[in-house]
Amino acid sequence: MTNQRKRSAWTRLGPILAALVAIVGTACWASSSSAETARMVPPPVMDERAPAAPTEVTVLAGGCFWGVQGVFQHVDGVISAVSGYAGGAGDTAHYEMTSSGTTGHAESVRITFDPHRISYGRVLQIYFSVAHDPTELNRQGPDTGTQYRSAIFVQTPEQARIAAAYIAQLNEAKAFPQSIVTTIEPGKQFYPAEAYHQDYLTLHPTQLYIAINDLPKVRALEQLFPNLYRPDPVLVAAAQPAK
User: Fold this and answer.
1) Global pTM?
2) Marked catalytic residue, from 64, 82, 151, 162
């Protein structure tokens, strides 16, 4: 069964099984999900100075983009978080094709943030702490394939330098039981995903896939980074011009 069909199965079962989440409580589901692997890793020793520009962009991949987008939409200082594809060509930047795992793309999130409110290093700290497990190679949770790889699509040489130094720092400190497998990939263009993938976590909180795999990440963000957590997410839909 392809990963696309797996997620479709979660969607079909969601209305029925989500009731179990409400009855049993989300805490027990979280015990076998990403909340179990969430951990506060130390902040980067090396971080960039806030640039003169009012905004900065980074692109991060860490499994299904629904959860990564959902986490960063709740981070104070993030201006927008858009789900999409990075690592491959523009003509294959489509969900059906990316799901094959043969396009070079990874499901990714383009994060635009105010570097005067949150640093690039702090964004990476959240990425490694709660957004995904950086020790899983070409998979996250139930999803497998290179399209779910852990990757930082750096936008500048400075971002590449800081990301590389941070990965080395975390590995040396043995912040995780296994070595980090996150790749640093420069020079790759980002392509926004289809509209139905945007704001997915917020729009489908009772879908079982979201309840088990992604909502625990948002709860972990609130618990581990209370000063950076904002209850109201910044949504892609809210940024669209009215028609």
Assistant:
1) 0.87
2) 64
